[in-house]
Amino acid sequence: xxxxxxxxxxxxxxxxxxxxxxxxxxxxxxxxxxxxxxxxxxxxxxxxxxxxxxxxxxxxxxxxxxxxxxxxxxxxxxxxxxxxxxxxxxxxxxxxxxxxxxxxxxxxxxxxxxxxxxxxxxxxxxxxxxxxxxxxxxxxxxxxxxxxxxxxxxxxxxxxxxxxxx
Length: 166
Fold this sequence. Notes:
Elements: E1 3-7, E2 12-27, E3 30-39, E4 58-66, E5 79-82, E6 86-90, E7 96-100, E8 102-106, E9 109-111, E10 113-122, E11 128-136, E12 147-154
Antiparallel strand pairs: 1-2, 1-12, 2-3, 3-4, 4-8, 5-10, 6-7, 8-9, 10-11, 11-12
């Protein structure tokens, strides 16, 4: 199943995944994880008075997070924890810069995701799968606490070109 679920106090939002991408890329002298997950805008499963109707589509991102693997295939069987959505690091000139590891883009806004645990495995067909649990700032602005979420996706059949994700 390829879904994104947000366990908002008022209702559970369920999104169906349209496309997803997972890569290990070299960034300077380190290997970094890149994950993009985009939902479709199909809300046929949502009640007419649902709060989710105000947020029909979203995208989740992991960028520049250092990992100790060389290829995507080596992620199978690994758990990657990303406790904070961003860090401050010193660049070559000694200036501090914020590096955002995780973000949720919904309703023209970007929201930080924290407490992220990504569990990679292979399904029966040998295809890489991801179970991602974490918390995100409330994008509905109806609650003051972070909202837990879960993602389940399989990276098969999602062989998109880079430009599909721009």
